[in-house]
Design goal:
The complex is a heterodimer of chains A (about 190) and B (about 170).
Chain A lengths: L1 H8 L4 H19 L7 H10 L15 H20 L10 H9 L22 H20 L4 H10 L3 H26 L3
Helix pairs in contact in A: 7-8
Chain B lengths: L1 H13 L15 H20 L5 H8 L5 H22 L20 H16 L3 H9 L5 H18 L6
Helix pairs in contact in B: 3-5, 6-7
Classes of the chains: A mainly alpha (about 190), B mainly alpha (about 170).
Chain lengths: ~190, ~170
């Protein structure tokens, strides 16, 4: 029993996480004919709060309220995990990544996100501002332009063997590789 | 199979512009909607416990320094694909007795341009939209700024949609 709790509190392995996430696909279909996706919520929130007479935001978003309930659950679940199931040990970060980032003046390796880059104080630094504000904008714009995110395309779309989702997933990964390896080094070294 | 395909085509005409839409005709009250919150809670716990919401895990993925995220996404797709195949083969119905409908995705150039843009943003924020919400739940309050900016991005897309190549 004690071993079970130790495993529960330690970081979960990929095969457990992947299996549970994969089961959300049939889960949502069976409990209410819903296709798995998250980024559409950003559109629903725009449609509900700032439609501004833009045709793209004039639709019956109330029919999609389930998706907002789903996201509400994600926030609650993350809170529960962080409050009651938190890992008693330090975060393990790849040694090579750690030394690269240390050289770029990133020193917080104890949180899921480094304080040096993601905090209200970091927002006032050029690199923090670029990561949080420009990065966030690209996520919101890009997912809607691509018509889905990692959930809707990479997991739901690929599960249903949709080739447009494969194209989208390849582009997500390509964009990520380009940013991480070619652009981010310059952003992170900004004073 | 054929009946599912015909329905897919009909649904496609209904809404081509949303990746995830509600295919149920049944109206649900707030109590009924809470079951989606329960699924969300499970998802949120996994996001935190498997450290999927960590900026470091995403950096490791794009630097090929860890297998973790590839394992998570690969397993999720495998389990998801097997489930969808079984649902189609056995014509599984929803708990309300409706036929299950999965909308087909239409290819547009947006999947390339938008996909690349999202990829750039994903590596910067270390989060796709799901993890952004989970980061708030996990107590990283400043992520409200990232979400506000993501909303601004979605809104700007809506504004410029007709002028963009699709």
């Amino acid at each position: 029993m004690q071993e079970f709790f130790e495993k529960l509190l330690a970081p979960w392995p990929w095969y457990i996480a992947g299996t549970i996430i994969g089961l959300i696909v049939p889960g949502l279909l069976i409990i209410g004919n819903k296709t798995f996706g998250i980024s559409s919520n950003l559109r629903h929130i725009c449609a509900a709060c700032f439609p501004a007479n833009i045709p793209f935001f004039k639709y019956n978003w109330k029919k999609e309220t389930w998706n907002l309930f789903f996201v509400g659950g994600i926030i609650a679940g993350a809170f529960i995990a962080n409050t009651y199931l938190s890992n008693p040990n330090n975060l393990v970060v790849n040694a090579q990544l750690k030394s690269t980032l240390s050289a770029w003046n990133i020193h917080d390796f104890n949180h899921l996100l480094p304080n040096d880059l993601f905090s209200f104080q970091a927002l006032a630094t050029p690199r923090g501002f670029i990561l949080m504000v420009v990065g966030g904008f690209l996520v919101g714009f890009g997912t809607r332009y691509a018509n889905g995110c990692t959930s809707g395309h990479s997991i739901m779309g690929l599960s249903n063997l949709q080739w447009p989702s494969l194209v989208a997933t390849i582009c997500f990964m390509l964009g990520g590789f380009i940013m991480t390896n070619l652009i981010l080094p310059f952003i992170l070294q900004m004073k | 199979m054929s009946t599912i395909n015909t329905q897919n085509n009909q649904q496609e005409l209904l809404d081509e512009t949303s990746a995830c839409i509600n295919h149920s005709d049944k109206k649900e009250n707030s109590f009924g909607l809470l079951k989606y919150s329960l699924v969300g809670i499970v998802f949120g716990i996994v996001f935190v416990k498997a450290e999927i919401i960590s900026w470091f895990r995403i950096q490791e993925m794009f630097r090929l320094q860890s297998f973790h995220m590839y394992g998570v996404i690969g397993t999720a797709v495998t389990v998801g694909a097997l489930s969808v195949a079984l649902i189609k083969k056995f014509k599984v119905k929803t708990i309300q007795g409706e036929e299950i409908v999965i909308v087909k995705k239409k290819f547009t150039k947006g999947q390339v341009y938008g996909g690349l843009m999202f990829g750039l943003g994903w590596a910067m924020t270390g989060a796709c939209p799901g993890p952004l919400f989970a980061q708030i739940g996990a107590g990283v309050g400043s992520i409200v700024v990232v979400i506000a900016s993501a909303l601004a991005g979605t809104w700007t897309y809506g504004l410029l949609k007709e002028k963009l190549p699709h």
